Each structure stands twice: as structure tokens, then as C-alpha cells.
Amino acid sequence: MEFNCLISDIDNTLADPSERLKRSLSDLGRPDVYEKTSDSFGGFAEYLSSEEMDEFWSSFLSEKYLHTDRPAPGAADFLNEVRSKRVELFYLTGRHDESGDSMRTGTVDWLRANGFPDPEEPGVELFMKPTRKEDDKEYKRSLLKERLSPRLTEQNVVGFGDHPDDAEAYEAGGVRPILLDWLGLFSRQKLLAAGSDVLVVESWAEIKKEFTKSK
Fold first, then answer.
1. Structure pTM?
2. What is the DSSP letter of 207?
3. Averaged pLDDT for residues 81-95
4. Looking at the chain, which residues constitute the CATH 3.40.50.1000 domain(s)?
5. Which contacts (CB < 8 Å, 24+ apart) does range 99-105 have?
6. For residue 38, what pLDDT is reported?
7. In the CATH scheme, what is the code of domain 5-16+71-213?
8. Rg over CA atoms, the chain
9. Is the pLDDT reported for residue 19 higher than 80?
10. Four-residue CA torsion sign, 56, 43, 167, 139
11. Nearest Cα to 37, choosing from 63, 58, 60, 14?
């Protein structure tokens, strides 16, 4: 697998936010909801009122519990390895960076604390939604097509994510999508159906194996 630019989502791709989910639901007095939805993506609206949903998102999409996210095994090692080969790295996340309501500091601190390439070093950038309410997929599609695509001309680019929406956004921007299934949030069939050229892998170790094979 050859590439000289790598784009990666963060939540459920580099980070397992399960503990952040649990704590945010516990703050509501609704820890039971986690067990009811732990084998799929989302689904909280089925069990929470609109007021509870607002309170949940205010906690989950904040820096309050970001430090509890578990790094994906092997992810930091792989990203550092490709950076040593001068591969450009973009973190492209649905986390937001809104004035007075930002996840940027906590995200940067988490990446550094867990040994990931520093998003403030040359060759590495962190792209975040300007507001919390902006749709994740539309933000990623727009940024890839309007801002990043001109910079990626004549580069061999791959994009890592976990959600079918990630694959759609990457392909719309001319990027080869690779979806990680390490948390089992979607069926493999649904992930493969998300785009015309989607590669689904189970771990970052599998990605490293493919990358090493091509060298």
C-alpha cells in the first residue's frame, strides 16, 4: 500500500470513546443506556428524551472526559512510522472548535499524551468543525472537496475512518477510504457498501502489515 498523504478520523478510529460515553450517560443517571446500545453505533435517542439528549451531547462533546478515551492499539506507532517516511498527516474529525465551546485543546493534549504525531508540528494538521451543530459528513465532504483536494493534487492519498459516512466523504474528495472495524460498530456488509473502493480492516496492525508489504 503506497501513499504519501494520510487522512484520519479520530473517534472510533484512533480513539475508543466508550468510557466517555459511559460517564456522560452516568451523569444523566442513565448508565443503562450504554449497555442497551453498546453493540451498535448510537441509538441513544430511542431511550433518552430530547432534553436528556441535549445534556448528553453537551457532556460527551466536551473536553470533560476526553482523557478517558482509549487509544487504538498500534495506531500511534503506525502514524509515527509513516511520518518518519515524510508522509503528510491530516487529522479530520467531527469534533468541534467553536469559540467558547471547543474540543481542540483536549484533543491535542490527548494525541500528545498517547504518543500520536503532534498536530502542531510541520507536516501534521488537525481539522475540526467550526461549530458543534454542523453535520459531520457534510463538514468532511466540504473540507475535502473545497480546501484539501487542491492541496492533494498528484498525491497518493488514503483516508482512515470507521463510519460509512467517512467512506462517502473520502470518495467525494477523491480519497481512497479505509474503514476500521476494531470496535464492531457496523456490520462488515454495511461498511463495504459505503463506497465503490472501500477497504475494511480489523486493526491498525493489519494496516501496518499492508503498508510494510508494499515497501
1. 0.94
2. H
3. 95
4. 5-16+71-213
5. 101/62, 101/132, 102/63, 102/128, 103/61, 103/62, 103/63, 103/66, 103/128, 104/128, 105/63
6. 76
7. 3.40.50.1000
8. 17
9. yes
10. negative
11. 60
The per-residue pLDDT for range 41-58, each reduced to its tens digit, is: 788 889 999 999 999 999
Q: Which set of grid coordinates corresponds to residue 167?
A: 467512506
CA–CA separation, 70 and 67 (whole Å) = 8
Whole-Å CA distances, 112 to 61, 63, 78, 118: 19, 15, 15, 6
* All cell numbers assigned to 192: 463495504
Under 8 Å CB-to-CB from 153, ≥6 apart: which residues?
Answer: none
The answer, yes or no, to whether residue 116 has pLDDT greater than 70, is yes
The percent of residues above 70 in pLDDT, for the chain, comes to: 97
Nearest-CA neighbor of 90 among 66, 126, 130, 128? Answer: 126
Name the one residue in this structure whose C-alpha cell is 490527548. Answer: 110
The cell for 213 is: 508489504
pLDDT at 1 over 70: no
Q: Which whole-number Å values give the CA distances from 20 to 16, 29, 134, 135, in the listed order? A: 9, 14, 21, 21
